[in-house]
Specification:
Distance between the termini: 16 Å
Order of helices and strands: HHHHHHHHHHHHHHHHHHHH
Number of helices: 20
Largest sheet: none
Length: about 475
Amino acid sequence: MVFSSLTFIYIFLPICFILYYSASSIKMKNIVLLSMSLFFYAWGEPRWIVVLLLSSYVEYLGGLRIDKYKGTWKAKASLIASVVISLSFLVIFKYFDFFASTVNSVFKTDIGLLRLGLPIGISFYTFQTITYSVDVYRGRAKVQKSFADLLLYICMFPQLIAGPIVRYVDIDEQIRDRKVNIKDASYGVTRFLIGLSKKALLANFAGQIVKELIAGDLNKLSVLGAWIGIIGYSFQIYFDFSGYSDMAIGLGHMFGFKYVENFNYPYISKSISEFWKRWHISLTTFFREYVYIPLGGNRKNHALNLLIVWFLTGMWHGASWNFIIWGLYYFVFIMLENLFLRKLLNKIPRVFSRLYTLLVVIVGWVFFYFEDIGKLKQMLSIMFGFGGIPFSNVTDFAYFSNRLFFFIIAIIACTPVARYVKELLYKFSEKSLRCESLVDITNIIFNLILLILCTSALVGSSYNPFLYFRF
């Protein structure tokens, strides 16, 4: 089950609301959320729910032992054991076959492949379990003595499948006590519908462009067609993933939880370093807090620490060489910016620094999209006109002009224009109660229009995957 499905919007979510708001206490509300979250996960992955439960229980026991032996070597041993066991699940399901195939290829061995399916969300919930154990060990978070409450933190359906990666320390008190007022619920509904619109109206349309241009035979592509296709993918992955994060944050608000922001208009960044402060913020925070700083951060072996982080960032996204190359690609640019490029970018007009960032990011999506290294090389050759590739085909300009309205809307949606308009409306509404009521009515109409448009799009669309589900 996905958020952008009619089953979720019109059946699962209303039932969950009725049960949740019928519950009389926080304890009962948590039971409702936990039960619905387990059902939500089992709907799509019934056989792998055991992995989720086992991984959660390992961290629960590890947290109890860390707290019991606080300040002793046994606490550190418990931390290492729980983290290693949790990561072992991720390695077995996601990376074993990749490592085995690589060893077989290099050393001509015959290690058998497991060929296991990848449990949905394992990359996300594994990192969440690790933050719990580490923060308990560091003394930043209190140990959770209720397995049900810890399991609720790990498998809560708004952020279970594709994040954001929520640290336990940020949500601990909200599990114990929270309140939902009309303002929070209203914000949550609007935020959910904005995310749903990003997915159903923008990401899915961009996905069709990608499918038509670069998902098939690359031999038919021109330079212009290749750039239209990869720019389409740039829009698709942004609206897909940021849309999911918006929906998760919105759902959290509806149930009284405040999740961290995961995107902050990354395509307006003026450097690659800034881009990664705006893109998938929860993942960047995880690697900074739980890998980069413990390795020594900027204090010692700075370049090596960055190399490890970006290698792991690439690996986290997928067990394939293209993701490793993608991670190392960003390592190179961030190192260049640290050495000299950032000073240059600060001196030139912002428009050029933004164009530089966009170019690097868009080319980077080529490494991310093509798992086949041969096709990856071919795509780059086409984009930069190597081998006598024509600039355009007969149909390229007609294809682009027919989708020009979408590209204009997509570009605007990647900028804070809507946020500025919203801020102006709220400033205007503060002048009188009448204006405030008008803004509230406008917000309701806006939500209804989005819901109708998204419902219409979902009814008529057969293309509705979430890209980050496969990670």
